[in-house]
Amino acid sequence: MCVSSPQEAEMLRSISFHPSGDFLLVGTQHPTLRLYDVNTFQCFVSCNPLDQHTDSISGVSYNPNANSYVTCSKDGDGVSNRCVMTFDKAHDGAEVCSAVFSKNSKYVLSTGKDSVAKLWEISTGRTLVKYTDGCLAFSLSSAGLSGRQEHRTQGVFNHTEDYVLLPDERTVSPCCWVSRSAERKNLLSLGHNNIVRCIVHSPTNPGFMTCSEDYRARFWYRRSTTD
Fold it and tell me: For residues 116 and 137, what is the distance between their CA atoms, to the nearest angstrom?
């Protein structure tokens, strides 16, 4: 049952709950990020224009410590908290599709329409790892897209953060890399027959869900030898 809902003039593109459940970040087609008090639905925005993006917001996410958040945008930048750090042209000017924190809140994993996933160190703003080997760049180039994907999707860590997963647009399978070394693992068939637009991994177990334009959501779980 819907109790109440904020009214936005622009199409919603991303939302993220504060870990306390009291606040909600909302990213829309408008470049200004909204913060809502869930109890009163009062809306807050930054009074500093430099804290805002210049194009539609494509992703918002709180960190596990609940003291900062990261946003990404079609303007190609990634911004965290009250703009304490900006990853300028994070994906060489391509639209940034997603950005999520690591569990220790020291790193951000971003993906972009340049078909690359990147691991950023927040304290320095530098790229530590690029996840590109073979998977997306090769398959998309083969499709005549010059290595750039057409649709937004997001990259995620697995529950141990040993791996990074990102759906591949052409093969409809997730690319998987070792998070520290960027070594690419084998593709996993997801059984979808259209583009995967959303992937969410459990924070505690070896399971994840995928949602596709084939109108299906699928749950995947890796059983241990003791199950």
Answer: 8
Alpha helices in the chain (DSSP H): 135-142
- pLDDT bin (cut points 50, 70, 90) of residue 76 is low
Q: Report long-range pairs for 5-10 (Cβ below 8 Å, ≥24 apart).
A: 5/41, 6/34, 6/36, 6/41, 6/43, 8/34
pLDDT of 21: 85
Angle (nearest 5°) at CA 61 between 44 and 115 = 130
pTM score above 0.90: no
Amino acid identity, residue 30? H
- With b for 16 or more beta-carbon neighbours within 10 A and e for fewer, the 110-147 pattern comes to bbbbbbbbbbbebeebeeebebbeebbbebbeeeebeb
- Residues written for the chain: 227
The token duo for 152 is 């937004």
- Give me the phi and psi of 75, to 5 degrees please: -75, -5
Q: Is 12-221 CATH 3.60.130.10?
A: no
Dump pLDDT digits (tens) for 109-166.
998 888 889 999 988 889 999 998 544 443 333 333 334 567 777 899 999 999 999 8
